[in-house]
């Protein structure tokens, strides 16, 4: 019973005549408007290998506080230069080399870096990157906080924490996925259970093409445009351009995808940060392609 009916009943009991229109009108709640979807991105500005930049270093926070427990920094090293990063027991670093040449040292292990390469060393190992004179090396450094629960889970996979994981993007395992076309090449850069609740991969195709709309509320996701990437990212009702060396946050739980126009290239890294280990089942949608098998 609303307020008007209640007042009318009371008025009748008291013998009072209430004229229509004198009772207060019932309040009608305004419908809640949905919050517009916003796609946030940032362009990474790398240093060039010129005499004016000799021996310089650029380290910049990119999209700070976008994902809880995750920090992303763009790093440019112009040789001669050495960059060192220690790793504590509550953190793990992933290096996405994007352009240039250098040498990665992980404890006593040395790896020559030339262009697009992913590197991750076991927790507790120190990292060092060396760049010679006349060279430049540009990369994205991703720091992931490691919780006590993460340590318990990752202890189940001792082989994954025994040695560094260093691979050129083009050498990583390809996979198929239903939301992508037959000509799309997808690769897993970092499989699950190396860095707790984290996985990375690439998607590559030419326009006209698209990555179909999908959603995954069990994780947070970043896109990083690689060299030549020129696409449009869609999320709910919003769209945003993603160019080369741009980092973009996929709005949480949004229905999202990507499209590339004729004559353009799609080539980006996806980075998945899962809320819990149960969410890793999402990666079962990726069907690995055996050597020699067609895409």
Description:
This protein is mostly beta strands and 295 residues long. It has one domain: Jelly Rolls (Sandwich). Helices cover 6% and strands 45% of the residues. It is built from two helices and 21 strands. Strand 2 and strand 3 form a beta hairpin. It is globular. The relative contact order is 0.15. The N terminus is likely disordered.
Shape: globular
Which stretches are low in confidence, meaning pLDDT under 50 for 5 or more residues running? 1-20
* Separation of the first and last Cα atoms: 65 Å
CATH C-level class is Mainly Beta
Average pLDDT figure: 90
CATH topology: Jelly Rolls
If helices are DSSP runs of H or I spanning 4 or more residues, what is the number of helices? 2
State the gist of this model.
It contains 2 helices and 21 strands.
